[in-house]
Design brief:
This protein is an alpha/beta fold. About 40% of the residues lie in helices and about 15% in strands. The chain is built from 17 helices and 20 strands. An eight-stranded parallel beta barrel has the order 11-12-13-16-17-18-19-20, surrounded by five helices. Strands 3-2-4-6-5-10 form a six-stranded mixed β-sheet, covered by helices on one side. The radius of gyration is 26 Å and the shape is globular.
């Protein structure tokens, strides 16, 4: 077979010819940098053809929004072309993967094989058109240039942050550096967040306009972002909010996409004008007006509302109460909408999940798409380790099935929430976030993506060739064990299923704390049963993973640490749930033993609360 030899024995006749934007010149620098790492060869960069063979990076005719790239030989040249400048960069990364064997698993785990020769068949051609037009990663943690770099390498084409991160007011986030990194790679820049009260700050307006803010128990209260909602029936408040949105967008002219989310579990106005109307009607009409005002002045900016099941305080919980804000009312279905189903069981394809809440969300999403599918934007939580309770499997088949279903509905925009949050343990959750995020991005770009082959590559690099099959089998067992816990999440929409003593960082607040009178009903019994069954599975898995050889295999060590984290966390929680059952039945001696055993596991989450309850139980025993 006839081939192009790009380099051999640290020598090359090729230069890199890059014409066009700063992003294309950056793509050329990236190509040169990685070829040097692969073969020890440093190719010159050129702006014009010099008669010698070249790797040519160029933009196709026009400047399309949808990402499309091709890699092909033309005579002695190799041509990487893209429909826009970022697509040229994506084509470079695809070339490095396809022909150079490079893998961009995470910023700390890039795999670059060394070789003496790199040959490209003369008939080689790869062409890729993005399956989904918009593929956003929205960082709530790890807000760094390194995450932007990894995102581009995995073909995300949009990068989002909370609005109060973009404006530079957060000291630990270098917004200017992130904006520069996003622009250099040609990515779209997106604003988002629970920002209604960010755009209508109570410090600026409350004293003059208390009626703009939520009425709770008959009193107007200051609205706080990110939790609260202002009074959406106050027309003047909506107009002022729109003016502030426009001013923010003018300060960040690169931002062409903005989703304005409702407050997250905080105050909802119950004034006379608001209390008799559905929340989504009030909020949706407010965003509709804000969007109208934005498009009058900034017609190239798109504004989205969010359909999100944020308000689950109603008791008793019902399927209707935990899904009503996922449905867009008819008068707001012309507003582009980001659909965010908190608590979704991601281990089962949405269309196949028989649970009533999931069926309703699927129905609501289809209902919207029948009228306005191109304006639908789906919020994924595969890297939200807070929702997933720091017990996250790597999702594969279910993720692919959901992407197929969304395409069937006509959806063309996808959004991944990056919140690799942990509470009190030292287990880094970004590690598993990169694994799910990498799969998500590749499937969103390429409907034919071979996730199995991608994971097998990961196992070879992570565990070494001799342990790859063993590592894969252990991962499969871990995924199966953790997937059994995912079905519990939606049943605990206010407290997560893993919150024994209260809701995450709010567990110190009385209204969010577990009490002796707390009645979880059938869900509590199901949770205890599932966790108890999983303890033995994870204990055995922890012992088996301990047999892996991990010298010079940092990723293997991270896997073993993660298995240990999961085993300890599940065992500790199982014991806490048993202690709670014993306490509520007045079996204080049993409860004391369970609490002591839980502390002995080495668990770190909710340890302080466990010690407090142990002291309470001992007082009951002592009389």
């Amino acid at each position: 077979m006839s081939v192009l030899t790009l380099f051999e024995c640290r020598r090359s006749a090729y230069s890199i010819l890059a014409q066009g934007s700063e992003t294309i010149r950056f793509a050329a620098a990236e190509l040169r940098r990685y070829l040097e790492r692969i073969g020890g060869v440093w190719l010159p960069l050129a702006g014009v053809a010099a008669g010698e063979p070249a790797i040519i990076l160029k933009q196709m005719g026009g400047d399309e929004d949808r990402d499309r790239y091709s890699i092909e030989t033309q005579g002695d040249n190799l041509v990487i072309a893209g429909s826009n400048s970022r697509s040229v960069l994506f084509g470079v990364y695809a070339f490095l993967e396809t022909f150079g064997g490079v893998r961009f698993f995470s910023p700390d785990f890039e795999c670059v094989p060394q070789r003496d020769r790199l040959e490209i068949p003369r008939d080689a051609r790869r062409a890729q058109t993005a399956e989904f037009d918009v593929r956003t990663i929205r960082a709530e943690l790890d807000m760094t240039v390194e995450l932007v770099d990894w995102a581009a390498k995995n073909r995300f084409n949009s990068f989002g942050l909370d609005m109060w991160r973009w404006d530079g007011s957060t000291s630990h986030v270098d917004a200017n550096a992130i904006i520069d990194a996003v622009n250099l790679r040609g990515l779209m820049l997106e604003g988002s967040g629970h920002a209604m009260c960010y755009f209508l700050k109570s410090d600026a307006y409350y004293d003059r306009h208390p009626d703009w803010y939520p009425q709770v128990d008959g009193q107007r209260v200051r609205g706080k972002y990110t939790g609260d909602n202002f009074c959406y029936s106050a027309a003047e408040a909506v107009e002022e909010c729109a003016r502030n949105v426009i001013a923010s967008l003018r300060r960040i002219p690169q931002m062409k996409r903005l989703s304005i989310w409702p407050g997250d579990g905080g105050a909802v106005c119950r004034c006379e004008r608001c209390r008799d109307k559905p929340f989504m009607e009030l909020y949706g009409n407010a965003v509709k007006r804000i969007r109208q005002r934005v498009q009058e002045e900034l017609p190239d900016v798109e504004v989205f509302q969010e359909a999100y099941n944020f308000d689950n305080r109603e008791r008793p919980l019902t399927v209707e109460s935990t899904t009503r804000t996922l449905r867009v009312p008819p008068e707001c279905r012309d507003v582009p909408t980001l659909f965010a189903f908190w608590g979704q069981n991601l281990s089962i394809p949405l269309a196949e999940n028989p649970e009533p809440g999931h069926r309703l969300f699927h129905e609501y999403l289809q209902e919207y798409c029948r009228r306005n599918s191109q304006a639908a934007y789906v919020f994924s939580m595969h890297t939200d380790t807070f929702m997933l309770s720091n017990l996250c499997p790597v999702f594969g088949p279910s993720m692919a099935a959901d992407f197929r279903e969304f395409k069937r509905m006509g959806i063309d925009q996808m959004f991944l929430l990056w919140i690799t949050w942990n509470t009190e343990s030292d287990q880094g959750m970004s590690w598993v976030g990169y694994q799910n995020g990498g799969l998500w991005a590749r499937m969103a770009e390429d409907k034919g993506f071979d996730a199995g082959a991608y994971r097998r590559d990961y196992y070879r690099w992570a565990f070494g060739e001799s342990q790859a099959l063993e590592g894969e089998a252990l991962w499969d067992r871990l995924n199966a064990a953790l997937s059994s816990l995912q079905a519990l999440i939606y049943r605990f929409p206010w407290n997560r299923s893993t919150d024994a003593w209260g809701l995450g960082w709010n567990r110190k607040m009385p209204q969010y704390r577990w009490q002796l009178s707390t009645d979880l009903g059938r869900h509590g019994k199901d949770r205890l049963e599932v966790f108890s069954k999983t303890v033995g599975v994870l204990d055995q898995l922890d012992r088996d993973a301990g047999e892996l050889r991990d010298a010079d295999l940092a990723e293997c060590r991270k896997f073993k640490q993660y298995v240990r984290h999961c085993a300890v966390r599940v065992k500790g929680l199982s014991l806490l749930f048993q202690a709670q059952e014993a306490m509520q039945s007045g079996r204080w001696t049993e409860a004391r033993e369970f609490l002591r055993q839980a502390l002995d596991t080495g668990m770190t989450d909710e340890r302080d609360e466990t010690v407090e309850w142990l002291a309470y139980v001992e007082k009951q025993i002592d009389g």
